[in-house]
Specification:
Elements lengths: L2 H6 L7 E2 L2 E2 L1 E2 L10 H14 L9 H21 L7 E4 L2 H16 L5 E5 L8 H10 L2 E5 L9 H7 L4 E7 L11 H10 L3 E5 L11 H4 L3 E5 L10 E5 L1 H6 L10 E4 L4 E3 L13 H17 L1 H19 L5 E4 L10 E6 L4 H10 L2 E2 L1 E3 L4 H7 L4 E5 L6 H21 L1
The structure holds 4'-deoxy-4'-aminopyridoxal-5'-phosphate.
Length: 409
């Protein structure tokens, strides 16, 4: 992969921050956007901005073709069997909430169980807490092993015939752990439960095949994979989506509206009430074209190399604790860490003065922070535009940070 050529397609990276060339290591929060995506949005707004699905005029037809064409690109991207299974949403959070509200309230009852893990993002915890409260079901957690992975034995011990829903992240935004979704899905199905996957951190970085995984729902966000904010995906198996009621009612999603009764459009539109996220979907389509041209396999390998390099270099820093699996092949391209006696917010602030953007805080995973026995951590996350040089700059700045704080205190 030619990182130098790739970087040139990301105009935002070509700037100085606080007098230093920007080193962007916060792609797990949101990725930067390449020229083909920026240009697709520009072209839409300059040349064919129009509402979709209604109207017979030329711009409306072009916008509809762009919007529905993006749906087909998403279908192919995750290998769903039909575009009826691809619903445009605002992002992972909205997608998971849609499943919890629509599928959950109809199928989960008192005494049933919902199973998640300790490593989940708040977006994959709270919708299930709410569902458990509303239905009288029990929310159960699969424990984590010492190295921040889950064991299939623990999955088997937690999932029971009472379990109706298992929901799990594919890749952890804190530990970097890659979870064995295919195997967990099998265990969920053997117990009569459905499998929901939070794919926010997987789809940007690796090839996902929903038919191979056999999961029932797969959710992700465009903004972490080079697309604009405000667009995401809910994939669901057709036979489940067909049984489910929409959660938003209004324009665009109806077939017939009477005074007291209405009927819905067929899939996928019954879940897309209101004017949809047209520019966002077109931008997501452009992002998928961009990622596929480079190749998801090449991106995964590149990030794997960066993670291995970062783990090796960062572990030489005195007093550093790195969270998650120690072996690079068990994890994705991010490193979450703490430096002894320096608060992670201070680490991030000092790095910012060097032009290096990392994230500090609980990363929307407070139960995981509790499990790690910390209140916060710092996180450096990598994407296709990062290089070994970025990691060298990070390590150098971390050593400086450590020295600075040991001199001050
Ligand atoms: N799950 C994971 C693992 C995430 O990293 C994120 C984003 N930080 C989300 C869910 C939520 O995604 P969004 O905010 O785009 O809905």
């Amino acid at each position: 992969m030619d990182v130098k050529a790739i970087r040139e397609l990301f105009p935002i990276l070509n700037q100085e921050v606080n007098g230093h060339p920007l080193v962007y290591l916060d792609s797990a929060a949101t990725s930067q956007k390449p020229l083909p995506v920026i240009e697709a949005l520009d072209e839409y707004y300059r040349q064919y901005n129009s509402n979709v699905h209604r109207g017979v005029h030329t711009l409306g037809t072009k916008a509809t073709d762009g919007y529905e064409g993006a749906r087909e690109k998403v279908r192919k991207f995750i290998n769903a069997s039909s575009t009826e299974e691809i619903i445009f949403t605002r992002g992972t959070t909205t997608s998971i909430n849609t499943v919890a509200v629509s599928y959950g309230r109809a199928n989960v009852h008192e005494g049933d169980e919902i199973v998640i893990t300790y490593m989940e993002h708040h977006s994959n915890i709270i919708p299930w807490q709410q569902l458990a409260k509303q239905t009288g079901a029990t929310l159960k957690y699969i424990p984590l092993q010492e190295d921040g992975t889950i064991s299939l034995d623990d999955v088997r011990n937690t999932v029971t015939p009472k379990t109706k829903i298992v929901s799990m992240m594919h890749v952890s935004n804190v530990l970097g752990t890659i979870n064995p979704i295919k195997e967990v899905t099998k265990i969920a199905h053997e117990n009569g439960a459905i499998m929901v996957v939070d794919g926010a951190q997987s789809t940007p970085h690796m090839k996902v095949d929903v038919q191979d995984l056999d999961c029932d729902f797969y959710t992700f966000s465009g903004h972490k994979m080079c697309a604009p904010t405000g667009i995401g995906i809910l994939y669901g198996k057709k036979h489940l989506l067909e049984q489910m009621e929409p959660v938003e009612f209004g324009g665009e999603m109806i077939d017939f509206v009477g005074l007291y009764e209405s009927t819905w459009k067929e899939l996928p539109w019954k879940f897309e009430g209101g004017t949809p996220i047209i520019a966002g979907a077109i931008g997501l389509g452009a992002a998928i074209d961009f990622l596929e041209e480079i190749g998801l396999e090449a991106i995964k390998e590149h990030e794997h190399r960066l993670a291995a390099y970062a783990l090796e270099k960062m572990s030489t820093i005195d007093g550093i604790t790195i969270y998650g699996p120690k072996e690079a092949d068990k994890r994705a391209g991010l490193v979450t860490f703490n430096i002894a006696d320096v608060h992670p917010h201070d680490v991030a602030t000092v790095l910012d003065t060097e032009g290096i953007a990392v994230r500090a805080g609980h990363h929307c995973a407070q139960p995981l922070m509790k499990w790690l026995n910390v209140s916060a951590t710092a996180r450096a996350s990598f994407y296709l535009y990062n290089s070994e040089e970025d990691i060298d700059k990070l390590v150098e700045a971390l050593i400086k940070t450590k020295e600075y704080f040991s001199d001050v205190f």
